[in-house]
Design goal:
The structure is a homodimer of 370-residue chains. By secondary structure, chain A is an alpha/beta fold. Chain A folds into two domains: 2-148 and 335-366, Medium-chain alcohol dehydrogenases, catalytic domain (Quinone Oxidoreductase, Chain A, domain 1); 151-309, NAD(P)-binding Rossmann-like Domain (Rossmann fold, 3-Layer(aba) Sandwich). Chain A contains twelve helices and 20 strands. In chain A, strands 3, 7, 8, 9, 10, 19 and 20 form a seven-stranded mixed sheet that branches. Chain A is globular and about 70 Å long. At the A-B interface, strand 17 and strand 18 of A face strand 17 and strand 18 of B. Chains A, B: Keywords: NADP, Oxidoreductase.
Amino acid sequence: MGFDGRQLTTQLDADGTLTLRLAERDWDAPTGRNLLVRMEAAPINPSDLGLLFAAADVENADYGDGRLVAQMPEKVTRSMAARHGKAMPAGNEGAGTVVAAGDDPAAQALMGKRVACVPGAAYGTYATCDASMAFAIGDDVTAEQAASSFVNPMTALGFTETMRADGYTGIVHAAAASNLGQMLVRICLADGIPLVNVVRSADQVKLLKDLGATHVIDMTEDGFIKRLADAVEETGAMLGFDPIGGGTMASDMLTAMEAQATRGAEFSRYGSSEDKKVYIYGALDTGPTKLSRGFGFTWDVSGWLLFPFLQKAGSEVRARMQKRVLSELTTTFASHYSDRITLDQMLQKDAVLTYNARKTGQKFLVLPNG
Amino acid sequence: MGFDGRQLTTQLDADGTLTLRLAERDWDAPTGRNLLVRMEAAPINPSDLGLLFAAADVENADYGDGRLVAQMPEKVTRSMAARHGKAMPAGNEGAGTVVAAGDDPAAQALMGKRVACVPGAAYGTYATCDASMAFAIGDDVTAEQAASSFVNPMTALGFTETMRADGYTGIVHAAAASNLGQMLVRICLADGIPLVNVVRSADQVKLLKDLGATHVIDMTEDGFIKRLADAVEETGAMLGFDPIGGGTMASDMLTAMEAQATRGAEFSRYGSSEDKKVYIYGALDTGPTKLSRGFGFTWDVSGWLLFPFLQKAGSEVRARMQKRVLSELTTTFASHYSDRITLDQMLQKDAVLTYNARKTGQKFLVLPNG
């Protein structure tokens, strides 16, 4: 017995041609611990865009019927040699209904249920997913409400778990007006964690203040680093999370933290001995990270990624995090979508140019069976 | 009872004027755990130059009698506000004879002894030093042989201790032909630690090969990163130490490590999940560190500094390290000096331009009573 439908794939060839295609396919009945989920809603997260388009030139792409062909810069093409020639499905997460399940009791337990899931192939009529990456949602929760219940919520909670594991007591967050950033504001308010939010406009300041945020800093205004240092002093936040990656954000955070740490202290050419750290967890700017190193020798810049973090955190922490997400899905972890599109619309120029711009406030939800 | 002599100091004023001065002074008899050491030999290490000159324009300085006045760039001057107006002694380490000691038994035990020490003020006729930062040397060891027995030896040993503590099994070392780099080659050979040496010339390749080094890579030759990745594959060295700091060395190391980690692996847009880390422990290039981030999200770049490391390592590890340094002072930890100068000569233009150039193969020893 097979299931017929359509699936979006992205393929990068060695010559730099990137092809997104929406094609017919069928799914076999799942075996073992696998589920087959009829997808009802799937968000487009920045991490999805990294796989779908990376740095391809979507502005000058060739948009055809169920197909999009764009050119990838040569350097990026070379750095992705392992994906050359492979049509890869996309879409980390979503929500839907389990229409078939393998023999394993863990899979059978979810048969017929409405679930939030992380199949890594959510942009399709159906998606196959391991039972451990899906969890049942209540009747009072819609697919749309449950669609983003993994990546952003677990990432935001993961920041606070990481903070505790690393021995810090406050967080500086860049690009903090994002959906993820708003969740982090609500978590930190509820948990009493000092949070410094760095944003890029007065509107974003208002947005976060309205949520109850105490420290919101507009980086486009004068004296950014001085104001950031003041906020670090007030909060003791010596741990940063930066989704921008390129440019000087990580360096600016460390500079502000060091300025705070050395206020009134004796001069040391090696800088303060106070620990300070920034995790880079995204690449909104794909250019190089530039560290001025005007912040001594006691510092750390590191990559942060959800799945390796979850693996290291262990099953007990994961279960605790997931339980909280489920119980606060429509409050703390509520996502807001600016646009809802079908699989077909995912390949239309207007939509692509908008959702691939990764602008704060614009978040797309895909309705694969819409 | 006082001790008369001369001491070199360095002072940075708020207007950017840097003044090095060799002036008469006297030292009181030491109290408590303090020693007074008559200094016989003190090396000029890169870390000393950071305090003495930082980024001052020594080429166009005013060289006078026992005095040197240079201009510091404005940005650097501002970043060092805590030292403005203070005449600071310099010289991390050296060797000499204890001519007076405080009442504490730890100090009295070293009275009259020849010692290697870390007074932080070695460029003077005398220096005061805590007894815990000095250790007696054997009669068969000269002051010159003992002068560099702390900073470089403990740093090189510290790298291997750090490697073990962080769970790595091999090291990539940049600017590896330095005195420190040569010690690291000998330590790694003796301890069976895989070491990849990155150098800048064919001469330096020969120098390290003659010491017995297996992997020596000339970064000025074509295909540097490819060759580095090959060496990483052969050695499993996923931990780097970089004294350059500015530019792309740390990034290049991570790129090579990632290239090795993903050879033959499935594509993941997040990169490999293999841990890779680079410590920046110097600033031979004071420009910004540029990280291309073409190496996934599992990476770490961090500052490394000897004294915080020693503090974290604990007294047992420190004692073990120091014991080894003393017993291998004329073999594993032997330093080679290209020039020997007096305190007066430290302020002469020819000498300053040479020793402040931080060139591999040029290492100065100061004879404060010479």
